[in-house]
Structure formats: structure tokens, C-alpha cells
Amino acid sequence: MTALLEVSRLVKRFGGISAVNDLSFEVNQGESLGLIGPNGAGKTTVFSLIMGEHRQNSGTVTLAGEDLSADPTYLRIQKGVSRTYQVPRPFADINVAENIRVGLMPNSIRRMISEGPDPDAELALARSVGFAAADLEKTPGELSMGDLRKLELARTLATAPKVMLLDEVFAGLTVGEITQISDLLAEKRKEGMTYVIVSHDLRSLEPLIDRAVAMTFGHVIAEGTFREVMDNEKVRAAYLGH
Ligand SMILES: Nc1ncnc2c1ncn2[C@@H]1O[C@H](COP(=O)(O)OP(=O)(O)OP(=O)(O)O)[C@@H](O)[C@H]1O
Ligand SMILES: [Mg+2]
Description:
Blueprint: E1 5-14, E2 17-27, E3 32-36, H1 43-51, E4 58-63, E5 66-67, H2 73-79, E6 81-83, H3 96-114, H4 121-128, H5 145-157, E7 163-167, H6 175-190, E8 194-198, H7 202-205, E9 211-216, E10 219-224, H8 226-231, H9 233-240
Parallel strand pairs: 3-8, 3-9, 6-7, 7-8
Antiparallel strand pairs: 1-2, 1-4, 4-5, 9-10
Helix pairs in contact: 3-4, 3-5
């Protein structure tokens, strides 16, 4: 079976630091993978490499067998990878509905050519991540962290991805907000969405993943079920710092 997303022998150096160092993993169709590791392990950099936001020094990224490694970001998004940001990155001057519309843009251009514009698409997406109608007019500055993370998810879903890369979707949230986002991801998982999720909140992560990959210093140190990975000696040492 061909993996849906395959990261192979990726290397990324920033000056003297090897943020990602000969890293490989794959994600199958419909699978949810947890990518864990201590601060600075290289998790976010892996996402940036998959999206083409940073260029790798070596190694490859393939999606459904197609090599994306040289593609610019917009093309990778068109081909089916999409990410959220650890620090939410909405357009600050426009409201929630307009932010989602920007995410929908490439799709809507395609659809407008074939079927005409779809004014309901942004509303449907906003609803699907749990926004109320009254939230649509708010600007990002008026949103709670939970709502900002919902907006990140809506913008990521807007590109109709084959694989979603979710970076710290629970960070800075209240317990209630964590439940909302968890429920949403559980739903996406049930619908067959493939995703890679990075989270320091291991308790929230566990029920949302089929498999885990642990990394430190840019390198995979353990792979398996959540339990197997958490029981791994190297992982324990990495988290305890000795
Ligand atoms: N643009 C950059 N320029 C220079 N160094 C960078 C850059 N981005 C990341 N790094 C370095 O690369 C290493 C990996 O960083 P990265 O942000 O990928 O880790 P992370 O696992 O996502 O950490 P965290 O859990 O804190 O989010 C760190 O040492 C970081 O300082
Ligand atoms: Mg990070």
C-alpha cells in the first residue's frame, strides 16, 4: 500500500542547528497520527517542510506517491495538504466570514468557472467548526483563543485537504474549548479525514490518534501506539530531560 503522505529522510538546518535531522514517517489514508516531542524537537519545522514554507536541505515529501518536494506552497495546498499554525494567523483587519472566504478562494475560483459562486460555502464551514451566526461579523481581535483556533481549522478545511497538519490546536484553550475542538476532530476522523496532529496536551491527544511518532532533535525516536510510545525508554528520557 502506498502511504498517503510520506516524509522521507528530511533534513533542515538553520545555521548550525539541525532542526530536522534525517526524519522519516508515513501516514496512511484515513489515519490520524500524533507527532510528539519536547519543545524545540522540530515538529513545527516538519510541518513547514511538508507545506514548502521552508525548503529542506535534503529528503522528500510525497503525497499519494507524487513528489511535492520542489513544489511551491500554493501548489501543495492545491494538491491536498493544509496546516494550522501554532500561533493563529488570521487576517486581522477582516471578519471571521471574510477570513474563511480567503481560505476558500482557490476553490471558489475553480467552482465559479464550473458552477458559479457559492455564497453559502463560508457559512457552512463556519458552522461546521462551531461558530454561531453572530461570530461571523467579529474581527480576529474580538475572538477568544478557542475561536481563533476554530478559525484556523475552518481556513484549513476550506482548501478541501487530503491531509491536515494540526499544530498545537489545544494550546491556550480552556477545558471547555479543548472539548469542543476534540469533538470536532473526532468527527472529522469519523468522516475519514487524514491528519497529523502535534500537541503537548497528551491526554487530549490520545483518543484522537491511531498511532504516534515521537521525535527529539529532529529525529524519530519511537513509533507505535500511543501507549507503546509513551512507555518507550527514550521517550521517557526525552520528556524527563535525562
Ligand atoms: N526559522 C528558524 N530559524 C532558525 N531556527 C529555527 C527556525 N525555526 C525553528 N528553529 C529552530 O529549530 C528547532 C526546532 O524548532 P521547532 O519550532 O520546529 O520545534 P517544535 O518541536 O515545534 O517546538 P515547540 O514544541 O516549542 O513548538 C529549534 O531549535 C528552533 O529554535
Ligand atoms: Mg512547534
